[in-house]
């Protein structure tokens, strides 16, 4: 398999934004959250989001997989060293900002989003994470995306193993959230799922009950 793993730099982030949008294009939840689909404005927004996170959070790492035959970046994951003390400072800072800014939900999400659906979706996901992980330190896989034509060929596993090795070195666990379609990838490398949370997408024009599961990997496991 001619794939190699590398830590990505700022110049790679426009490509990660493209991979993200390609990988989830047509997924029911994405149709509800971003009903206008992918536009140049959406791509620009996600590129700027990735660059901001790369530059402003020293605990965030963009890890990419490259196809050496075509010299193409085909997959990436966004791992973050998620420490309880940092979360507490971040929450306090966000609370202060909310008191000073008149930022609407529309400002928080990519162009063409359904702001109500986005706000409910991300709120439920964040609550699930807090309930499942509590006040522990962990490595958090915020996103894992592979170009559609390369899915199922092992790139995702390479990104997962990178985070697991960092967690093992530091004696921490790993956390991610998964849809039903992605669970087998994570279970294959030892992740164990917790209780599901679901969101009915029918109020947002999509006939689908979207369910997701928090998942945890412990370095003391055998994987």
Describe this structure in words.
The protein is an alpha+beta fold. The protein is about 45% helix and about 25% strand. It has eight helices and eight strands; from the N terminus they run βαααββαααβαβαβββ. Strands 1, 2, 3, 4, 5, 6, 7 and 8 form an eight-stranded mixed β-sheet that branches. Strand 7 and strand 8 form a beta hairpin. Helix 1 packs across helix 3. The longest helix is centred in the middle third of the chain and has 19 residues. The two termini are about 20 Å apart.
Question: What would the keywords be for this entry?
Answer:
8 strands; 43% helix; eight-stranded mixed sheet; alpha+beta
Mean pLDDT: 92
How many β-strands, per DSSP? Answer: 8
The percent of residues in helical segments reads 40-55%
Element-level helix/strand string: EHHHEEHHHEHEHEEE
Question: End-to-end span in angstroms?
Answer: 21 Å
The global form is globular
Poorly predicted parts: none
- Structural class from helices and strands? alpha+beta
- What gyration radius follows from the Cα positions, in whole Å? 17 Å
Tell me the β content.
15-25%
Largest sheet: 8 strands, mixed
Total helical segments:
8
How would you sum up this structure in a few lines?
The chain is an alpha+beta fold and 223 residues long. 43% of the residues lie in helices and 25% in strands. Strands 1, 2, 3, 4, 5, 6, 7 and 8 form an eight-stranded mixed beta sheet that branches.
